[in-house]
């Protein structure tokens, strides 16, 4: 099934689930959930098809509705949103895309959520040496009009081995390098939503291209890929 719309019925189901987040209600309405899940999956597949036009996607992953409550204070059994991610292809294309559908809290996110220790150190060393390239990309007006400011957690002062007075410490101390764009319910339910998602993902490419170059080279700019 080809689906390029998020329906009000899917939103209404998620709202009802938020009010009735228990196994009895969910089992009673499981057939309705399965229908909306299939429609949403089709929507995500269309998002990937759009991505494939201007990027190379290795896989799309839809996240399950069931929550892992073992280590959570919140024991409600179900998520009240749909979500999925899109992984870029191979070792040379870094970064990833994420889309969450939730009434009142829909957003797309891109970037580097939890880079491994080696990648994080490489990024920090790059910014210690020269951050002019990354600043040019993320401060470009058309980029900022879509994605706003760089987001993500960081250390409070400076990572071990780095000068807390370094002029690029605002970038060096980060542990995450992500961008988020929020959408209103009206935008999500519009016919143009899927186009806006793709427009957003397409606009992140200068950032991905730069970060991929950093993560596939050493500080001399020489490739570290086989």
From TrEMBL:
A Pfam match: DUF2461
PANTHER family: CHROMOSOME 12, WHOLE GENOME SHOTGUN SEQUENCE, DUF2461 DOMAIN-CONTAINING PROTEIN
NCBIfam families in the cross-refs: TIGR02453 family protein
Protein name, as recorded: TIGR02453 family protein
